[in-house]
Amino acid sequence: MKKTIKLSTTQLILLSFIIAILIGSLLLWLPISTQSGESVPYIDALFTATTATCVTGLVTVPTYSTWSVFGQIVILLLIQIGGLGIITVLSGITVALNRRMKLKDSRLIGDAFNLNSLEGLGKFVKKVILGTFIVEGAGALLYMTVFVPEYGARGIWISVFTSVSAFCNAGIDIIGESSLIPYATHPLINAVTCALIILGGIGYIVWWDLLRVFKDVRTQGTGCFKRLTLHSKIVLSSSVVLILVGGALIFAFEFSNPLTIGNMSLFDKLQVSLFQSVTTRTAGFASVPQENLTNGSAFVSLLLMFIGGSPVGTAGGIKTVTFVVLAVTAYTVIKGRNEVTLFNRSIPLQATRKAVAVAMTSFAIMVISTVSLAAVTDASALDIIYETVSATATVGLTRNLTPFLNTVGKMIVICTMYLGRIGPISLAIAFTYHKEIVNNIKNPTEEISVG
User: Fold this and answer.
1) Fewest Cβ atoms closer than 10 Å to its Cβ: which of 20, 229, 262, 376?
2) How many domains does the structure of the chain reveal?
3) pTM of the model
């Protein structure tokens, strides 16, 4: 008798990304997808499909000059699918057709968004998709005020593409071959891009929590921050601190660097420094050449990239909540306390364990990728680490190494981007059989020396 293969919800999520990448790569491999009318090498089509679906932004061929309008549409669709998740898109279609969401579909959404509750997921999906299109549409309209006067009718397409890419934290653009470097000191481009990156990066559940609090404040007139959930408090406070501290450090390290902001006015230095701090979390747009950064700024950027955005959003990295939970846990241990608390709330042990698992798995992927890439390229250690951290955290910033990777190096980065996007904890769960086993037998405890 034939044996039916049953996949877990997380395995289905992993498989959906692979299918999207393969279909995208085949479409991009077609001659119609390029401006020259000739197919690019399949490895470059696969790399581009992966970086778009995994909303990373690293590219081996220039997006602006390589891909035709058809190819750019394919890339944009992959970015949108990757940002929302293929499961979310399919579930959104189900909701739009007024079909009832099955329990299996609910579990898929719960795993895709890393949610702890399956209640009201149909409404959640509808709000996510609607909210995404509203924000991306607003961003596109604001971009048009700059790009349409400069590029004419093509500026509309540039605005839409850039808005979707920024919100999904993809970092791919079709403006030119220098990312946003020509607009490094443009206040509107900086403000809109940063706003889209942050809105996509803080996560959808923070959106709904903020809207709920604003409604309560309008009726009851009490403080906003106190009414937020613990999750939202952690996300918002950590995001503000990371952006401001990161921007301040980059401003200090680059202040006199003529290759980046050294020759700019004080205002321009501030906005470019803040943009660098925001884009590393994990958007990937560059307003200054990353290879020209000082070592201090490069290492600050590495840390910001590794932390990334926040859960249930479009950003990558280990996430802000993970970083905060690890930091608070370490502080608790140093202080000799038994309970991990933050904002007068106890953090569950399960959250601490998951934070450790996510951080260690991401670190392992980064280390393996770094060693592997170092074995096949002669680039400097800093350039290689920058590349692998960027790929692991799905950032997309590079110190001009990606275009010069050989075939093996491209495959290493492809695998790294995929593993970084689907989430280390999802990867660990996907290949583990879940069986509820009642085990009342406990092994004996023995003391060990740590530290």
Assistant:
1) 262
2) 1
3) 0.89
